[in-house]
Every structure is written in C-alpha cells, then in structure tokens.
Design goal:
Elements lengths: L10 H42 L2 H27 L3
C-alpha cells in the first residue's frame, strides 16, 4: 500500500498552493497598509488636538473671531442682495 505522505504533489497542486500563498500575502500587505493609515490618522488627530489646545491657538482664535464674524455677515448680505 502506498502512503500518501510519501508521494510528491503534482505540479497543479503546487501551483494552487503557491497562488493561495500569494493571495494571502497580498491580503496581509493590504491589511498592514490599512493599519498604518489608521495609525497615522490617529497620530495626526492627536497632533491637531495638541495644537488646538495650545494657548497660542486659543488666543489667535479669539483675536480672529470678530474678523470671521464680519466676513460671515458680509457674505450673507451679499448673497441676499444679489437675489440668490
């Protein structure tokens, strides 16, 4: 009786295994890229939060708030005057 473990797989079986492994590698590479992107997004969000919580940012926002308010009022006024 022939033991199946003693026989070598044929070329088709080897090719199928190789394709399955390549497919798995490509999937893992995509997953790694996605995780890196998520991690980078978190790092960027953390940095933005740090900047926005700084005294300089808060003072600058307070100083520029009236300018933004005037721009908003003027923009609304010009849209209403043009009939849009």
């Amino acid at each position: 009786m022939i033991n199946p473990a003693d026989t070598e797989p044929d070329d088709d079986t080897i090719a199928i295994r190789q394709l399955a492994l390549v497919d798995r590698i490509i999937g893992l590479e995509a997953e790694i890229a996605n995780l890196r992107s998520v991690n980078l997004s978190r790092e960027v969000r953390t940095q933005v939060d740090l900047v926005k919580s700084s005294t300089t940012w808060r003072v600058g926002s307070a100083v520029l708030a009236p300018v933004f308010l005037v721009k908003r009022v003027l923009r609304r006024g010009s849209k209403g005057a043009s009939g849009k």
